[in-house]
C-alpha cells in the first residue's frame, strides 16, 4: 500500500453496505454482503479522481486486514479482490474453503 493511504481510516458503512476510504473528498469502496461470519465482497470502485493512485488497492488491503482482525470468512466474488488475493496469496487464509473458485487462488 502506498504511504499516502496508510493513515486513512477504513469505514464499514453498514447503511451503504460498503467498506470505504475517503481520500481528498473522494471515495474508494467495496460493496459487501454479510451473513453471520461470512462477508462477500462483490464490487470494488474508486472515484475517477482517484484513478491510478492505488486507492482501490489500498481499500482492498485495508478491508482484508479488517476481515482478518474480525475473524470473518471471505467470499471474494469481486474480480478485483480475487485478482488481489491471487497476487498476494497470504490472504487466501481468510477465504472460505467452500468458495467455488478457491482452488484458482
TrEMBL record:
<feature type="domain" description="N-acetyltransferase">
    <location>
        <begin position="11"/>
        <end position="96"/>
    </location>
</feature>
<dbReference type="Pfam" id="PF14542">
    <property type="entry name" value="Acetyltransf_CG"/>
</dbReference>
<dbReference type="InterPro" id="IPR031165">
    <property type="entry name" value="GNAT_YJDJ"/>
</dbReference>
<protein>
    <submittedName>
        <fullName>GNAT family N-acetyltransferase</fullName>
    </submittedName>
</protein>
<dbReference type="InterPro" id="IPR016181">
    <property type="entry name" value="Acyl_CoA_acyltransferase"/>
</dbReference>
<dbReference type="InterPro" id="IPR045057">
    <property type="entry name" value="Gcn5-rel_NAT"/>
</dbReference>
